[in-house]
Amino acid sequence: MNSKMTALLLALISAVAFIVVPAGQTVDSGIQTVTDSTEYTVSADNAEGTPTAENSDSNISTQAPAETTTAVQTTKPEGVAEETTAPVDEDLVNHTGATAEKTDAPMGTAVQQHGQLSVKGANIVDMHGENFQLKGMSTLGVAIYPEYISKECFAKFRDYGVNCIRLAMYTQGENNSYIGNEYQNKELVDKGVQYCTELGMYVIIDWHILSDGNPHQYKSQSMEFFDEMSAKYKDYPNVLYEICNEPNGCSWNDVKSYADAVIPVIRKNDPDSIVIVGTPTYSQDIHEAAKNPLTQENVVYAMHFYAASHQFLKDRMSEYYNKGMPILISEFGTCDYTGNGGNNLQETRAWLELCDKYDIGYINWNMSHRNESSACFYQGTSPEHWNESNLREGAKFVLDWIKNH
Ligand code: IDC
Fold first, then answer.
1. Is 246 a residue of the active site?
2. From the CB of 246, is ligand 1 less than 6 Å away?
3. Could you give the domains of the chain?
4. pLDDT of 43-97, one tens digit each?
């Protein structure tokens, strides 16, 4: 193609893009901006005591087991609505620019029906002001298993009723973590957001701190990252930002001062989106956060559980939900806190029943075939062509739960 033709084609594409998505316009006109962030405040004397020994999961293994990728399965997924949007043109996916093209959510999808989410009292609500439960699956690490950043794979989770994908991006300590591999990670996050957008799914951009327990360690990198992401996705009603996965070995005051630095960076670009804030002790200590809550709007507190380790946290969730604290289970496992070991499906059921009762959202760990019980898939699974027989016990339980509730 000669340069004239290329220029003509580009002009045509931008003209069409302008008609479809005029600058500054969002799909949801009825955005709900309810402010209510402090009613769950409890006094210090009301707070619970120090976490139990079980509550200090400090021995998380950092070993990555060997992996294999083999045969592609071709069984058709169980049917839910066929995708009707045009296929992705890779060239139009903007991995590095300051803004990105938004595709309007296809009819019948979660994002088309529920639009921009916000926080009202202790719940996440949709654009109509109704309680809305995020039900999701988390990647293990976008750059550990990049093959799972796949539109086909996300669509298969959507077939089960999954309405949200969490893009966990390790900051350090894992294969290809963000620090030192910034471009590669951002490219994968961009792809993931684009696919979710085209599928009408919500998407969480997760700054996955773990071995770097104090979020201040990479605060400046985080501010830079979220500045770029929120500028790019300011018009996307389906994007949520999780600014620190699991703080540990630091206090709520450390987390709060970090959040007070990062949230304004996001708000400057994207005033409406939900921000998820981790809590101390691997996102278990919501009661610490409740003593000195954040003052920003549309913020939810992360609580994480692993069903075979953290039974005791259920009461904490109920107590603080009932005090009016907005909580999101932005990560949970059916197994123990190492991400491995036996599943406790009875406890998982109890947790999910409680979440459903309160309309608290939950996101399962993890979308990979790593050799551990929290991984969705057995080794040898094809991200694009899996079926029930590729699912490990925990993921099968969770996906059946989502399908039936
Ligand atoms: C685990 C992975 C495991 C990896 C380890 C360290 O499942 O393969 O070796 O991280 O990178 C969390 C963390 C999450 C952990 C998970 C299970 O958010 O990153 O993943 N877990 O240990 N909090 C509690 C449990």
1. yes
2. yes
3. 110-404 (3.20.20.80)
4. 333 333 333 333 333 333 333 333 333 333 333 333 333 333 434 434 334 444 5
